[in-house]
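Before relying on records like the one below, remember that each one covers exactly one chain. Contacts with other chains, cofactors or solvent are not represented anywhere in the record.
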Amino acid sequence: MHLPNKLLADLEISDIQRLIDIGVGEDKFIEYKSRLNLGPDKDKKEFLADTTAFANALGGEIIYGIEEGDDGLPQQITGIEVDNEDQLKLLIENLLRDCVDERLSGYDFRFIPLDEAANKYVLVFRISMSLRAPHMVKYKSTTTFHIRHDGGKHLMDVREIKMAFERTSGLKEKAEKFINERLEIIQKEVISDHSSSGGFIVGHFVPLLREEYQLDITNQAVIDRLSQVRPPYTQNPVSYRHTFEGFKTMPDISGRGNYNLFFSDGCVEFFEERLIGIERDNDVYLPSVAYEKALIKYFDQIRKFYEDNTFNLPFIYSMSLLNIKGAKLVHTKYDYTGVRTTTYSRKIEKNELHLPKLQINDLSKDSAAILKPLFDMIWNAFGLERSLNYDENDNFLPPK
C-alpha cells in the first residue's frame, strides 16, 4: 500500500497530495479515478470489475477525485461531488452485495473533505486481499472474474482461478499449525510450571494474511495501544515486557498468571488462570456468567486492536480449556423477587476441551453473537443443552 499506515478515518488531503508530490503512479496496489458514476450499466460493471480485481489479487486502494497527466501520474486533486455520503455508501454496499459472488466483505471507504461548501470530496476506497477469492462479477447476463496486475486489471483464466482457491486452503493450514505449536509450548512451559490446581483458558487470534504485516513493537505509540489491552478477567493496569515472540502484557510484574502475547505479525495469544478456580468445598468451578462476559469483552478489545492497526480480515479464532477434569459449570440467576438460584452441572470428564476454530470473515455481528456457538459447545461438554446466558433470540442477556 502506498498510503500511510493509518486508519482510513485518519487520512487527510495532505496524504493524497503526497502521492502527487512524489509521483506515485498506478500499479498493482493503487488506481486513480477522476470521477465515480454508478448510474449507467457500463459504469457499474467497471466499478465491480475494479473492486473484485483488487480483492482477487493482493488488495489495494482506488482513489476517486484525482486527475492524471498524459504520463499516467497523478497530477491534480479535483474531488468528486457527493451530495449524500450515506446514500452513496448504501448504493456501493448494495451493488457489491447483489452483484458479487462469493460475497465481498473486506472493504471500507473514507470521504476526505476537499471543499465541503461545494460538496467536493476525495473518496478512498480500500479493498483487502480476500481469502474467499475468487470473486465473480455477476451483472445481468454477464459473469466475469478479474484480477489486478501492475498495468491495471485483466480477466482471470482457468489457471488463475484455480490458484486463488488453492491459496485460501494453504493459509488456513499455516494458521492451524501455528495454533497447535503454541498450545504445545503453553502445556510444556507455562502450565507445567504452574502451581494452580484450577483450570486454564487459552485463546488465539490469527490473521490469515499475517505474513503481509509487521507490527512495530518498538514504536512507543504501538506500545501504548497494546498496553491498554487487558487480559481476560483483568481489571487492574497491566505491566509489559518485550519477549522473543513479541510483546507481552500482564497484571503481574513477575510474568506469571494472566497475560496477552502480541506477535509482530498480528497474532494474539491470551492465557487466563483465574476463572476456572477452586471454591470452598475444594471442587473446581467455571462460573458461566463471569467467563462468558470476560471473553466477550476481550474479543471486543482484539477486534478494535485489528481495526486500529488496519489488519485485514479474515482471522482464525481458537479457544481451549485446559486442566479441567472434574470441574463443574455453575450458573446463578435471580427471579423477579430477587431470590437467588444456583445450579451446578455434572463434573466434566475431559481434561482438555479444544473448541472448533472459527474463521471470522466479517465483523457485522457483535462479539457475543460470534462467540455463542463456542459457549453452547462448552455447556454441552458439561452435559447441558446450551448457554443459558442467551435468550430465545440468541441475544446475550446474562442474569443480573
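The helical segments are 13-21, 41-56, 85-99, 158-190, 220-226, 288-308, 367-381.
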